[in-house]
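Kindly draft a sequence, keeping tokens residue-aligned:
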Amino acid sequence: MRIDLHTHSTASDGTDTPAELVRNAAAAGLDVVALTDHDTSRGYAEAVAALPAGLTLVTGAELSCRLDGVGLHMLAYLFDPDEPELLRERELVRDDRVPRAQGMVTKLQDLGVPVTWEQVARIAGDGSVGRPHVAEALVELGVVGSVSDAFTPDWLADGGRAYVGKHELDPFDAIRLVKAAGGVTVFAHPAAVKRGQVVPESAIADLAAAGLDGIETDHMDHEPATRARLRGLAADLGLLATGSSDYHGSRKTCVLGEFTTDPEVYGEITRRATGAFPVPGAGGTTA
């Protein structure tokens, strides 16, 4: 089985629609794919409707969190999307995205960049607007060469010249809320130092003690030595170790299935979940 547990669609900051994403996942030879858009479950229905036969969909979300001033992302799988408390927190994050992005546009304009809110809104379309959409505007304007190049202290990285904060969950609250909604939590790309500051391994141990289920060890932003170290940490802490592409369509260079999760780990995730269940494809028809 080939299992990719971290992908994004146009419901947040990917470039594939949910329907395109599941079709592309099947074409890439995946058996299981998780849809984990940022702080939203809006893409679920379209993905399920288009799900090809032979592909299983895991519903999820990537939750925006912050611990001691450091941003981190928490992958949540197979939770009840209608559970009121977790839904309310996701909506708070989502509702803060527009004023945050507008604030980044203002900062960029103050730095002499001719970006406009209309340009960013066009790029975001119906998705939950975020930094990648602002980054793509900088690419369009020729300010940076790629979306990744925009995530530096000069521009949009945490604490960067054009950075603006947003409502984010405490990761301990995120674990509690996801568990209460019947879901499973995995710390996304915990050692992605190229993205900025990361939390220390002692914090991962504290999160594990609070009920964290796993850490994403195999990821494009982890060097081979880092992946090996994280797998050892997961074993020491009794955490599941996952691998994923973090696919965003054409917005990033990674491809579906670039990293995958062991079938036994996937089986354990599904055993622990009570809020929702994986959806087997029956042959989708959504265009």
